[in-house]
Amino acid sequence: MKHVLYSLVALAAATIVGGCATFGRSTRVEDPYGRFAFSVSDELVPIRDSDADYSYWYESIPMVTHIVTAERAREDDAVTAALARLGVRASDLTVDAAMTMGEWKLFIYHEQPNDSDLAVAYQFRGGTAYMVVVVPEEPFESDPPGPIMRLVGSFMFTEAAGDIWRPQTTEALEHYIRTSEVSEAGAVSISVRHKGDVVYEFTAGELQFGTPATGATRFNWGSITKIVTAMAIMQQVERGAIDLDDPVGRYVPELHQSETFTVRHLLTHSSGIAHLEEVHLVGTAMQHLPSLEETLEWYVSHAGEAEFDPGSHSVYNNWGFLILGVIVERVTGEVFEEYVSRAILIPTGLEATSFRPAFEVARSTLEVADRSRFVSMMNEHGKDGEGMISGETGSHVELVPFWISPAWGGLIGTADNVSRLGDFFLSRGRVDGTIVLSPRSVRSMLRSQPASNGQPLGHGLAWYLGRDQRGPYFEHHGGGPGINTLLWVYPNDELAIAVVSNYGRVHIDRIAGHIADLILE
C-alpha cells in the first residue's frame, strides 16, 4: 500500500496547484449547491450508480471516481456522512496511509467487509466536506491514474465556501511567500525562464538559522537528479553503447532477474524490481558513502523477487536509477559523478551544480514533531540520527549538510540551474549552438511511454508527462527530509519554472501554479 500513498502524494503535488488545475480537454461542472465547480476530463465517463453528487468511470484503468459532499457542524461527522452517501461505513475502514497536501487531506483506506481499497481526498470548508473517492475494480497494486487526482486539483470554491486566494501581482506573491511559506523556517528560491530568457527570480527565507538565502544558494535537488541520469543514458544510446530495449542483464548480469526487464523499464519505473529502504545511502558531508558498485553489491544481496511484471505498470523506485548509474559507469569507464560533470553539467552551463555539499548549501529543515521519527529512522539504518541534527529553534530543527548517493538524488545546485535544465529541453538539447543531447534523444525522453498492454504509463524517460488548463507539460519533483524541489515545463509556452526549498512544508506546486498564471495570463 505504501506505493499507493507515494503515488497519491506525487500526483497531488503535481496537480493541486492553487486549487485550480484543470484538464486540457474538459467540461466545467457546477455542484448542485452552488458552492464549487470543477472540470471533467473527456477520459471520465459519467455514470449513475450511487447517491454521489457525480460519479465517473475511468475506462483505461478500471476504477470509479465519486464527487460527494455532506454538510455537518463537525469535520468527522461530515466525512462520515459523505462516505455514507456512497454506502460506505466509516467504522468499516482501516487507514493504511494518510497525508496532507495543500488544503487537501489524502487517505488510503481498506474496507474490511468487501476486502477492497479506497483512495479519498477531501477538504472541510464552511461546514461542508468536499470529497473525491476513487474506488478501483481490483485492490490497489499500482499508481492511481493522474487524471483522477487532477480532478481533485480542479475544484474551485465560490465565496460561499471561501475563495482560494490567488495573487494578482508578483509583489503579492512574494509577500505571500515571506509571510505564509517561509515565515517560520526554511527558504524558497525561484527561477523562471520564458523563451530562453530569465524573466523572474526570487529568494526568501534562511539557508540556515539566522543566515538569509540568496539566489546563489544551492539546494539539494533530490530526484530531479534523475533527469540528468537519464540524459547520461541517452548520450550512451547515441554512441551505440546502450540500447534502451536491451535486457539489463547485458550490462548488469549479477542483478536478480535482469534478463526480464530493460533499460527503458528502469527509466520509466516499470521494471518491477524490489523496492528497499534507501536511508543508508544518505550521509553527512564528512562521511564516506559507498560507490555505486558497492551499493549495487548490497542491493543484489538483499533484493528479493520482482514485485510485478516488467512493463505492466509504473511504481516509483529509486533503485532503478542507481542501476542506471552503474550502467553509465560500466559503458564509459568513468566514475558516474565525473562523467556527469564533464559530459553534462559543464556543457549545459550547470556550473553551480555538483554532487557534493558546499558552504552555501541550504540546511535541510524539519519540524520538531518529525525529529524523533527522523532520528529513529536514521539509527535503524546505522546512522547517527542525533548527529545529523545541527540545531533547534522554536518548533524546527536543522540538519547538518548531507549528500545522497548519486544517480537517483545526489545533485545540489541553484534554482537558476534547475530552470536552465528545463530550458535545455526546450532548446532541443542545444546550448549556445552546441549539441549536448540530440533532438531525437530529447524527443524520446519527452514521448509518452506505453505499458505492456499499450496503455500510457504517464511517463516519458524519467520525466512525468501531463496536461492542465495551460496545455501539455513535463515535470519532475524531488523530496526527502528537508528537500522539496520542482521543475515544471510548459513546452507550448516555452516556460520553465523551478521552485526549490529546504523545507518540506513549502507548497512549491502552489507557488509554481501562481507563477504560471502571472506570466501566461
Show the helix and strand layout.
Blueprint (H helix, E strand, L loop, with lengths): L1 H14 L10 E5 L5 E6 L2 E4 L6 E5 L4 E9 L3 H10 L8 E9 L2 E8 L4 E10 L2 E9 L9 H8 L2 E2 L12 H12 L5 E8 L2 E12 L2 E2 L6 E2 L4 H15 L23 H5 L14 E3 L7 H11 L16 H14 L3 H10 L19 E3 L3 H10 L8 E5 L2 E4 L2 E3 L7 E2 L1 H12 L3 E2 L2 E2 L3 H7 L18 E5 L2 E10 L2 E8 L4 E7 L6 H13 L1
Question: What report would you give on this structure?
Answer:
The chain contains 13 helices and 26 strands. The N terminus is likely disordered. The two termini are 40 Å apart. Helix 5 crosses helix 9. With 521 residues, it is α+β, with helices and mostly antiparallel strands. The strands form seven sheets. Strands 3-4-5-9-8-7-6 form a seven-stranded antiparallel beta sheet. Strands 13-12-11-26-25-24-23 form a seven-stranded antiparallel beta sheet, sandwiched between helices.
Key features?
single chain, 521 residues, alpha+beta, globular, 27% helix
Query: Biggest sheet: strands side by side, in what order?
Result: 3-4-5-9-8-7-6
User: Uncertain regions: pLDDT < 50 for 5+ in a row?
Assistant: 1-24
User: Roughly what is the average pLDDT, rounded to an integer?
Assistant: 84
How much is the radius of gyration in Å?
23 Å
Quick one: biggest sheet? Answer: 7 strands, antiparallel
What is the 3D shape?
A: globular
Strand content: 25-35%
End-to-end span in angstroms? Answer: 40 Å
